[in-house]
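Lecture 7 notes: from sequence to structure.
We start with the chain below.
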Amino acid sequence: MKTSKFWINKLDLLSHPEGGYFKEVYRSSEKIDLSSLPLGFNGNRSLSTSIYFLLEKGQFSAFHKIKSDEIWHFYDGNPLTIYVINVEGNIEQYKLGLDPDNNFLPQVTIPANCWFAAATKGDYTLVGCTVSPGFDFHDFTMADRNELINQFPVHRKIIEDFTLDDQ
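Predicted structure tokens for the same chain:
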């Protein structure tokens, strides 16, 4: 197994606003016209995009949501857990990794418009994230800790654990 520093350097990863490191590696040249997208989008979108994403021990992907489905693919390192507040307001945990006997699967899909966060279960986790319709920062919302706690008070502890202090 490689180290996190190996992957950060080899893949030329940059700091991500939600935590961890990333690099966009694909953006479809084909576009979806705004008139064909669900309500809430503010312009045309690529059919699909993908990034590399890496979390190191002690880092987390802070609660955020996007307007598209996001598929996470496990590549290297240790498994991770993705925490999702679904549309009913319940917490779901998705285990991403290569240990099906312990319910870690190599691919997980996060539905559009759900709040989600993630943390590695070891030294680091390298994943790929595919978004369709393609990712655009206009579709990205970082959680405000107090607003999310007010909306989902029963999940206060996990929201405190996976939100950024300055949000």
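Points to note: Residues 4-161 form a domain with the Jelly Rolls fold (CATH 2.60.120.10). The chain has one domain: 4-161.
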